[in-house]
Amino acid sequence: LTCDGARAVTGAVDGLVRVWHLKVGLGGAQEGHKPSLICKGHFNVVSGVAVMGSNQAFSVSWDRSIRKWLLNEGFNEEAGNNVSEKMMAMRRDAHDLEITCISVDAKGTTVATGSYDCSVRVWSANSLEPIRTLEQHGNWTTGVAYHPLDPALLVTVSLDGTMGIWDLAKKSREALVEVCSVGRKLRCVGFATEDV
After folding, report:
1. Do residues 60 and 75 touch, judged by C-beta distance below 8 A?
2. Above 80 in pLDDT, residue 19?
3. Which of 4, 19, 26, 55 is 20–30 Å from 36 (CA)?
4. 194 C-beta neighbours (distance < 10 Å), count
5. Closest CA to 153 of 196, 110, 116
C-alpha cells in the first residue's frame, strides 16, 4: 500500500506491475475493480513489490532485475492510457539468478533484495546503485524485511531453514548479528508494528 493508503501495488506472473486505486466505503470493497495503472517492463514473473511513499514503487522479477517506478509521472487516468513503460524511472540487473523478494527501509534510503543465488543485496533507493552484498544463506533467499522503526535492521530467511538478523550500520563482516535455525524451509518474513 502507498503511505496514504489510497493505492495498492501488485506484481503478477505476466510480468506486469499493477496499481489499484482503493475505493472502499461502508459496504466494503467495490466489485469490478480494474487497475488504474499498468507498468510494463519485466519480461518474466514479478516476484515482489515494495512501495516507497505515495508515488514510488520497486519491483523485482525472475528476469533478475529490479525496477523503480514513478506512479504519477505522465499518466492521465481519464484518457484511459493505463499501460505504460514511461513510469519506469530506473532498471538494474541485480542478481545472477531469479530474484524472489524485496523490501524498502522505513526512511526510503535503501532497498534489499533476495535471490535464488542465495545472496541478499542492498541498493540505494534513490539511484539503484549497489551498496553491499550479504552472504550467509546456503539455499535460496526467500524473504527480506526491514524493521519498521530501525532502517539498519534487516531480517532475511531462506529455504535452508535459517533466519539471518543483520545490523547494516556495521561493516560487512560484522553485520550478521544472529543466525537462527528453525529446521524448516522458510518462505517469507515480516515485522509486527505493535504488540499482538
Report:
1. no
2. yes
3. 26
4. 5
5. 110
